[in-house]
Amino acid sequence: MKILKSIALSGLALAIAGAMSLTSCNGGGNTSKSDSTANASSGEENTILGAGATFPNPLYSKMFSEYNKLNGLKVNYQSIGSGGGIQQLTSKTVDFGASDAPLNGKQDSALSAPAVHIPITAGAVVITYNLPDVKDTLMLTPDLLAKIFLGKITKWNDPAIMAANKGAKLPATTIVISHRSDGSGTTNIFTTYLSKVSKDWESGPGKGSSINWPAGVGGKGNEGVAGYVKQTPGCIGYVELAYAMQNNMAFAKMQNKAGKFILPSIASITAAANIEIPADAKVSLTNTEAADGYPISGLTWILVYKEQKYNNRSLDKVTKMLKLVQWMIHDAQQYCAPLNYAPLSDKAVAVGDAQLKSITFDGKPVLQ
Amino acid sequence: MMEQSVDIKVTTRPGKDAGRVVSVKKTSTVSSNKRIRRSFRQIRTENVFRRMLVIVALCMIVLVLGIMVTLAVQSTLSFKSAGFSYLWGKTWDPVRDVFGAYPFILGTLLTSFLALIISIPFSFAVAVFLGEYYPTGWLPNLLKNTVELIAAVPSVIYGFWGLAVLVPIVRSFETSIGVEPVGIGIFTSSLILAIMIIPYAASLGRSMIHMVPSNLKEAAYSLGATRWEVIRSVIFPYTKSGLFAGVLLSLGRALGETMAVTMVIGNTSLIPKSIFSPGNTMASVIANEFTEADHPVYLSALIELGLVLFLVTVVINMVGKRMVSSFTNE
Amino acid sequence: MANHVKYRIGKSRVFQGLTILLAFACVVPLIFILIYILQAGLTKINWQFLTNLPKPVGEKGGGIANALIGSIMIILCASVIAIPFGILCGIYLSENKKSRLAYWSRLCVDILQGVPSIVIGIVAYFWLVKPLGGFSAISGSVALAIMMLPIIIRSTEETLKLLPDSLREAAYALGMPFHRVVLKVIVPCGISGIMSGVMLAVARIAGETAPLLFTAFGNPYMSFNMMKPMQSMPLLIFNYATSPYNDWHDLAWGASCILLIWVLALNIFTKVITRKWKVQL
């Protein structure tokens, strides 16, 4: 009796659960749920899907939330990584991709149609270290940095480091190297810089979002590296500027191409981006020519197809998306600085505008 | 219970009818027809049910084969470029498209088995404690729920905790035994893994031990066996296959765990020199590099890593099964 | 003689002590972890936290309502797929111990447990997301269901295997057909073992990020549509825990705390249900 009843009860519960999930499966079909649509147009048209880089995710989520307040457009951006974003754009499961590195030749050829790059913001990679006895900011030259990460300089009191930091009390301890273990735009910027400044690095580990590190241990994510640096005396690592600033970490001054030692800051990153930007916006800011620019900086881009008529997309949706991107490179630049991102330089904005206007729908330009 | 009494009614009624005169034969055939129909229906449902079970079991095989085929298809690109040297290649260099999985295979096996060795005494202790010594009461109940909660902590949190708490402890331990004090490495990740896999062997073991028939235990007690002797000579042999299944489950979890391991293992593609040096596992390489893999060969090499891990699991499980069946034959 | 007995009793005592010691020793790290999470998370939880949508960095009062609902729906859907399938497969394996099919499917179950979650996510992506042409919560559910299967199947099988044969034979002797014997005698008798397997499986997937990354995708807004992207707790925890900002770290800790409490509550809830259902041997 009892068993029967409870079986019946649980069966009922299961059936209800099943029915619930079924109805929710059908939910999108004809009956639009009250909250999934804010205004009269259907939810499908009013949602834009994007995926890609992790690094600008906080900024993007701030921008998209503000834009939602202004226009009611819902943007679903997920930070699945630059590589993931490019793949999803290639397989057309998203409306836009986002990446910390411009598409290379192989990736371009994998796309079924040409894509345009629109720069959104700039960031920097900072060299963080744990030297409790060193009071002044550590100063590093490009050559030193490459030698340390190649494992060629192994002690903090190496004459080469002493020469760059006169008067600093450098300990005789071993340098412990910590790098990112997960593939990331941060690593890409960092290794691109090292490849530019050091022949040994270029012919050795090379550049990429994950590389074969000659020395050191890998931490997962910014917090993995930062956690390890904080705990280990004599440790050196690299993290995003925003992470170092938010968590009050010590970071080094880097010598740039002009020979100046530059402390990473929003101003010095924007300065680094104030160079001639090619019309396709594919440019690396590392080892910048700008005299006051911080040398390990990089842009981050939004990627969209140049021809927007594919997969039954409507002109309305495309226009909404492009207006959003236009807003991001103009009005929304005010949200960059409070979150420790560098606003675009005027030159970069001009290039972005030109890129946006080149986007077509069925052969006709969308934005005038 | 209700169902059975209904059944009995059905069988008795024709019996009563059979005792009556022939004139009622019509109703008797009707009811016996009903009975036959009913038993046919039962046989049919029984067959459907049996067939359903077979189909479900087949589905499992299809599912796993499907996963394997998907992985194999996606990794052909990498296989074409590297062939079998992928397995023992010692360099993993995504920049130059040189992919060798040997350091990661080694790292995976080292961490998993080390974790298993560390965790077995604990998980069996929990199983025996809850299954035999104190099966009821609030304290054992609390222990049981707590152990099951171990499985529920998101693994990224184990990673954070390991980095913040475990790594300094291991570092001071390494200093005291005179190894290079790195703190993170294979040993640390085995410790974290050992904690994470306790509930699988413990939970299955507990329900196994719980179900040992009490007459077996009582017989042993009546012969004068002590508690420990009962556990060793009655409970362990009786529950062997279940305990082993639990161990295999936890081994599987250890092989496939990613987030927590990747936070504390040090993630270097260099071949580990000792259990204290940093290393890398297959799962953590996939998790680390998959999202940013930016060209097809690289992506396919990572998926091939998944396939290799898959095959390693197959081999380990086959060997394990052989072992347990040779035990059972003795 | 007396010495020998004393020795044996002593040995037994020593092992009992050792068992108790080890059993409680393995709880110690968990308690530390729990304290670690509760300390960081409990203070962040309030009504707003449960009912609001996430807010960008620098705005107060962000919540996790969409992730909470999303997680519940995804896990519920995964359970609806995995529990009947898993229990049936477990029944087959326990009823056909020696058959060739059972050997191979048992092997497959053990292999499945060792497949890393991210690989299952990748496979689900190729099976569901690509053919369907977009991310959907249901594909996340399928990925999670695949992860639940091995635990449910193995615990069902091993529990049912140990039930005394007399039980089965008694039921057959009463003329019960096979499916009734299984569903009304065998399963209810082993229900506590099966349920603990189910609980373990739910607990296992509740915190999984990797299979959801390429399937359920995530969504900053509230969504009830299983065919569209949906947010979930592990995704939220992962994204927020890895961000640079303390506001978001707080959200992540609060969410982990909720996740734990939720699993605990589910655990207790199932226990109450199974107590009613369970047949005492």
Structure description:
The complex is a heterotrimer of chains A (368), B (330) and C (281). Chain A contains 13 helices and 13 strands. By secondary structure, chain A is α/β, with parallel strands linked by helices. In chain A, the strands form 3 sheets. Chain A has an 8-stranded mixed beta sheet. A 3-stranded mixed beta sheet of chain A has the order 5-9-10. Chain B is mostly helical. Chain B folds into 2 domains: 15-74; 76-329, MetI-like (MetI-like fold), CATH 1.10.3720. Chain B has 13 helices and 2 strands. In chain B, strand 1 and strand 2 (98-99) form a beta hairpin. Mean pLDDT of chain B is 83; it is low at 1-24. The model of chain C has no long low-confidence stretch (mean pLDDT 87). The relative contact order of chain C is 0.14. At the B-C interface, helix 1, helix 2, helix 5, helix 6 and helix 7 of B face helix 1, helix 2, helix 4, helix 5 and helix 6 of C.
What's the total helix number of chain C?
Answer: 13
Shape of chain B: flat
Stated plainly, the CATH topology of the largest domain in chain B is called MetI-like fold
Taken as a percent bin, the fraction of beta residues of chain C is under 5%
CATH topology of chain C: MetI-like fold
Order of helices and strands of chain B: HHHHEEHHHHHHHHH
Order of helices and strands of chain C: HHHHHHHHHHHHH
Class from helix and strand fractions of chain B = mainly alpha
* Overall outline of chain C: globular
Spatial strand arrangement across the major sheet of chain B: 1-2
CATH class of chain C: Mainly Alpha
Task: Kindly summarize this structure in a few lines.
The complex is a heterotrimer of chains A (368), B (330) and C (281). Chain A has helices at 2-26, 57-71, 82-90, 105-110, 142-150, 159-164, 185-197, 199-203, 221-231, 241-246, 266-272, 315-329, 346-357, and strands spanning 47-52, 74-78, 96-99, 115-129, 139-140, 176-180, 217-219, 235-240, 253-255, 261-262, 297-305, 360-361, 364-365.
What's the helix and strand layout?
The complex is a heterotrimer of chains A (368), B (330) and C (281).
Chain A: H1 2-26, E1 47-52, H2 57-71, E2 74-78, H3 82-90, E3 96-99, H4 105-110, E4 115-129, E5 139-140, H5 142-150, H6 159-164, E6 176-180, H7 185-197, H8 199-203, E7 217-219, H9 221-231, E8 235-240, H10 241-246, E9 253-255, E10 261-262, H11 266-272, E11 297-305, H12 315-329, H13 346-357, E12 360-361, E13 364-365
Parallel strand pairs in A: 1-2, 1-3, 5-9, 6-7, 6-8
Antiparallel strand pairs in A: 3-11, 4-8, 4-11, 9-10, 12-13
Helix pairs in contact in A: 12-13
Chain B: H1 2-18, H2 25-74, H3 76-82, H4 85-88, E1 92-93, E2 98-99, H5 102-133, H6 138-150, H7 155-177, H8 186-210, H9 214-222, H10 227-256, H11 259-264, H12 282-289, H13 296-329
Antiparallel strand pairs in B: 1-2
Helix pairs in contact in B: 1-2, 2-13, 3-13, 5-8, 5-10, 6-8, 7-8, 8-10, 9-10, 10-13, 12-13
Chain C: H1 2-25, H2 27-41, H3 47-51, H4 65-95, H5 100-114, H6 117-132, H7 137-161, H8 165-173, H9 178-189, H10 191-206, H11 210-213, H12 233-241, H13 246-277
Helix pairs in contact in C: 2-13, 4-7, 4-10, 4-12, 5-7, 6-7, 7-10, 8-9, 10-13, 12-13
